[in-house]
Structures are given as C-alpha cells and as structure tokens.
Amino acid sequence: MRATFKRVTGGMIGKTALAIALSAGALTIGTTAAFAKEKEAKAEKPSYSKEFVAAAGPMQKTITAYEEAKKKGADAAAQKALLANAPAELAAAEAAAKTPLDRMAVGGWAVSVGGALDDIAMRQRGIQNMLDSGQVPAANVTEYQFYLGNFAYSNKDYPTAVKALTSVVAANYKDDSAAELLADSYALQGKNAEALAALKTAVDARKAAGGVAPEGWFKRANLIAYKNRLGPQAIEWSTMMVEANPTALNCLVQANWFVNSGSSPTRNRSILAVCCCARAVSRTIPSTSSVNTSNTSKRPTHAVFRAKCSRLPRWA
C-alpha cells in the first residue's frame, strides 16, 4: 500500500490551507479614518462602547504607526518593532469590548497584528471574536469558519477545528483542503470513524452540487483506514475511489484489499466489478511484478489477483 498512497502530513495540509488565510485581505480591520468616523456617529446603532474606545486608544495608535511605516517602505524588522507593545494593547482592548462592533474591531486587529507577528493563536482568537460578534456578513460566515478551522488546526486545537470545519464541509466549501483538515482533526484525536464520516459528507456534498470529489479525499480516507486496520472501511473507500477514478492502479489497490480481507465476492457486486477490472489490468502486467515496491515477499502479486479473479463468474 505504500506505493499507492502518498502520505500527506498534517503539517503540509495546515501550511497549504493556512497560506490562504494569511493572505486574506478581507480579514484586516478598517483604516484609522473609518474607525474615527464610526466613533463620531453617536446616533448610529450598533456602536462602539465608551469603555472600548478608551481602552483601544493605544492599540489604534500602534496600528496607525504600523500602517504608515508600511506605506513608507519600512523593512520587516522596523515594522515588527512598532508592534512590540501590540499584544498587551490588544489584550486591554479585548477585555474592554462590550458591543458587537467592539468585538468585531478587536477581532480584526488580532487577525491583522497576529499575521504581522506570526502569532497564529492571536489570529485564531481574532477570527473567533469576529464570528462571535455577529457582524460578519452571512455570505462570508462559511469562509471565516474555514479560516478559524485552519488556525485552530495549526494550533493543534483539534476540537475547535472540528467544530469550525464541520459546517464548512457540509456546505461544500470551495477549498478542497477543508475536508482533509476536518478528517485529520478527527484522526489526530483517535476518532477514525468520525474522520471517515467527515470525508463521506464532503464527497456527498460535492456530488449533490454536481461537482467531482478530488482523488485526495479518497486517498486520505484509504490512508486512515489502512493505518488503523479498518478492513471494511478500506474496501468501501477503495471501491469508491475506483468508481470515481477507475485507473489501473486504483483498481489494483481495491483488489489488494479484497484479496487480503477474505471478503466473500457474492456479498458485494462492486467488489466483483473492481476485481474484474483488476483482472483485466493485471493481464497487461508481468506476474512477477508486485503491488508494492517494498516488502514484496509478503505482498500478493498480480498472479495472485489473476488467480482470485479467475474464479469469479463471467457476468461479474
């Protein structure tokens, strides 16, 4: 099986998905002028609380200085130096937040400053505040939940990642990594059945929307099932992978599971079909070849597949 699945580590998933979140300009707070304008509009509802406006003063000055330095072309070190007091200032502003707008503003600062300081925990807290504020437009909630799940996953806060990404995956979110992040968050907690169920939800949602599930989802599910010796689930997912992408290699992977599991072919017509696929493919490959490139003496060869499949009725 090692030659079949390309192992994708959690770190690789996190970095790929996180890159999207880190570059999301929509997550930065508005300019100083915009903040001041809203503060002056006393009649506007909702509004910032007096306590927050007072506590946020130092943070706002820091943000202003930072933005001006960026505009003037200051180097990264100089920009970062301007944010030396930002964590403490941000904490004070966050503690004073009372209204939805307060929480939205401090959340936006946390995402922006956290990005500059490479502080993922700060960014996670910021996104959570923005979502909790109720001020994120309904059309963007799923996207922000995706970012929250990314940050939580990178922080190894897997329960939060699961909570954030479950609805994202069910909504057939455009970024394919969401499903793998959710599955990995379950698997890293030892919840392999839930991980496979999450990927199944992703496949079903994509199909319901008229789309095509990426092969990576099937490979991820097969890897989880294989590593945890979940024979029936491995057969189910390898069969699904063949149905979605009936390549020669995928056929042989499914046949490998069939041969090793000892399943009765009369109980699963899909296995019969795939095994016949493997039989057809194996005719074109020398019988001395093996399914895997490692530990070949212990792995069934293509000749074994031919022998197994030759016993199937011709209608299969």
- Counting H and I runs of at least 4 residues, what is the number of helices? 17
Order of helices and strands: HHHHHHHHHHHHHHHHH
Mean pLDDT: 77
The number of distinct β-strands equals 0
Uncertain runs are 1-36, 264-269, 283-302, 312-316
Number of domains: 2
Q: Gist?
A:
The chain is an all-alpha fold and 316 residues long. The chain folds into 2 domains: 143 residues; 88 residues, no CATH class. The protein is built from 17 helices and no strands.
Architecture blueprint of SSEs:
Elements: H1 10-22, H2 32-40, H3 50-55, H4 57-71, H5 76-81, H6 86-96, H7 100-117, H8 120-133, H9 141-154, H10 158-170, H11 177-187, H12 192-208, H13 215-227, H14 231-244, H15 248-261, H16 269-282, H17 302-309
Give an overview in words.
The structure is a single chain. The protein has about 325 residues and is an all-alpha fold. It has two domains: about 1-145; about 230-315, no CATH class. It is about 65% helix and about 0% strand.
Name the features:
316 residues; mainly alpha; 2 domains; disordered N terminus; disordered C terminus
